[in-house]
Amino acid sequence: MGKTQLAVAYTKQHRTDYSASIWINATDETTLKQSFYRAAQRISRQYQSVLYIKNAVANKDLNETLEALVVYDNYDNVRFDRRNGIASSTRPGTAGSWSNPGNTLSGSAVSKAYDIRSYLPETDHGTVIITTRSATVKLGKRIPLGKLRDVNDSLAILTSTSNRNNLVEDPDATTLTRRLNGLPLALATARAYLDQVATSYKEYLEIYEKAYIELKDNTWVFHALGNLYSDQGRLKEAEAMYERALQGKEKALGPDHTSTLSTVNNLGIFYSDQGRLKEAEAITASYLY
């Protein structure tokens, strides 16, 4: 919930405290390697001397590398060796906001899981930040993020770029922030929408409620179709329906709701019945821990 935005804000606020800041898209190994490649390109443009770069690699205590900041963003497809006491976990399509409709759960997510530790700096200086939705990542100091508990903090997000002032005095704005339940991404999405259109907070809340009801009313259909297709042996269709049901329930009800967990359980059993034990373990662990 707002983990990427928080990392961005930290990087901007402390940019003068570090000799360099490198942002890595850690969604999967492909995006991670692409990020490293782009970073290397920028470094080579700034320091065109091959000898200088070789010296920096060989002497890792140079001032230019001593206090570097590296951010690994969206490391959600996690795979750690159990011998190290950490289980695997994948958690795409998490709840926590009305935004990110493209984040869907799929079996392919498990195949994207990887161990990030081989990509971490080998030096014992500098700063590394890893943003993740998985509670199984236990590297360094953990800072769990939660909802905004103070309504004034939620109102501050709505005010930041929406060019609307005196929100504390607007009862509809307060009602909207409470309905969005202190979720930073949901608040940021509302702020971005309200910044583009001449819609009141009351009208936005009505739009939100209508969409919420439609989503909530339709998710049971996907779950039922998943059961039906599974019974018929139409496994590919069944998996797709379970995934859509899970995505909808997370958004409408939250990840801890009994209905959401029921779909998680069904999906876990579905994987287990096919012998896909790692995927069954991963989907179950990501919601229970």
From TrEMBL:
It holds the Pfam family TPR_12. TPR repeats lie at residues 219-252. Keywords: TPR repeat. It comes from the Eukaryota. The keyword rRNA-binding does not apply. Gene3D superfamilies: P-loop containing nucleotide triphosphate hydrolases (3.40.50.300), Tetratricopeptide repeat domain (1.25.40.10). PANTHER family: AAA+ ATPASE DOMAIN-CONTAINING PROTEIN-RELATED, ATP/GTP-BINDING PROTEIN-RELATED. This is Kinesin light chain.
